[in-house]
């Protein structure tokens, strides 16, 4: 009997330890069975009665502004097509400031571009182009209108920075306005280098082929370099702005 009582006691203790805690029990376990009476003493009064909301609604209705009396704000003016499509003026503040100073200097230099090659020139210089310029002959006067720098001993006017090229678009060089300066060059003559002979030998047949080449170059002499004044530049801009 003592052994049976010991096993029953052990099984009873094990069942008590298996029971879950009270917070895991269903919601019904927290519901009490105490009855609540509906007497007037147990009811609490509401903080705001229904009769007190009537004057608040009346005040809101009296202070409300009708929609028809609200002031109408003026619409902002729409940009015109002329201002939107108008190109920017070439007379920038830097040109307005530097051009009179450059005009008063005794001598000037330019960085001109010929077929993509830059040349730093001044009046009286001789330029030997690395190619034969087509459709020109000695004695022709050329107007050079692509320049990135106009400078003197004390001042320099630069063009905007070049736009870098990408895989789809090539590099784009921005030049100064050609009406800012006058640069003329005279074709002096055409020079040619000595005859070059290149030997090309076949690898197996050992046949030797001779290739002859003789390049020609155009010689230019800068005859005129002039920087216009601000008044002359503005006079040239007026017909285009109209």
TrEMBL record:
<dbReference type="GO" id="GO:0003735">
    <property type="term" value="F:structural constituent of ribosome"/>
</dbReference>
<dbReference type="Pfam" id="PF00829">
    <property type="entry name" value="Ribosomal_L21p"/>
</dbReference>
<dbReference type="GO" id="GO:0005762">
    <property type="term" value="C:mitochondrial large ribosomal subunit"/>
</dbReference>
<dbReference type="InterPro" id="IPR028909">
    <property type="entry name" value="bL21-like"/>
</dbReference>
<comment type="similarity">
    <text>Belongs to the bacterial ribosomal protein bL21 family.</text>
</comment>
<dbReference type="InterPro" id="IPR036164">
    <property type="entry name" value="bL21-like_sf"/>
</dbReference>
<protein>
    <recommendedName>
        <fullName>Large ribosomal subunit protein bL21m</fullName>
    </recommendedName>
</protein>
<feature type="region of interest" description="Disordered">
    <location>
        <begin position="67"/>
        <end position="91"/>
    </location>
</feature>
């Amino acid at each position: 009997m003592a052994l049976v009582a010991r096993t029953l006691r052990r099984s009873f203790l094990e069942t008590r330890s298996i029971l879950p805690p009270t917070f895991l029990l269903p919601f019904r376990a927290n519901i009490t069975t105490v009855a609540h009476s509906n007497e007037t003493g147990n009811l609490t009064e509401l903080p705001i009665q229904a009769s007190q909301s009537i004057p608040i609604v009346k005040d809101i209705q009296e202070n409300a502004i009708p929609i028809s009396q609200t002031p109408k704000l003026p619409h902002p003016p729409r940009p015109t097509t002329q201002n939107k499509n108008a190109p920017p003026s070439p007379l920038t503040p830097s040109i307005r400031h530097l051009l009179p100073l450059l005009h008063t200097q005794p001598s000037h230099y330019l960085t001109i571009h010929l077929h993509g090659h830059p040349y730093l020139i001044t009046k009286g210089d001789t330029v030997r182009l690395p190619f034969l310029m087509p459709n020109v002959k000695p004695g022709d006067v050329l107007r050079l209108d692509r320049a990135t720098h106009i400078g003197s001993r004390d001042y320099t006017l630069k063009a905007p920075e070049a736009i870098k090229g990408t895989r789809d678009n090539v590099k784009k060089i921005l030049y100064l306005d050609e009406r800012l300066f006058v640069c003329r060059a005279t074709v002096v003559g055409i020079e040619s280098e000595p005859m070059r002979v290149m030997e090309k030998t076949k690898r197996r047949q050992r046949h030797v082929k001779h290739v002859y080449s003789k390049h020609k170059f155009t010689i230019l002499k800068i005859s005129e370099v002039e920087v216009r004044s601000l008044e002359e530049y503005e006079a040239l801009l007026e017909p285009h702005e109209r």
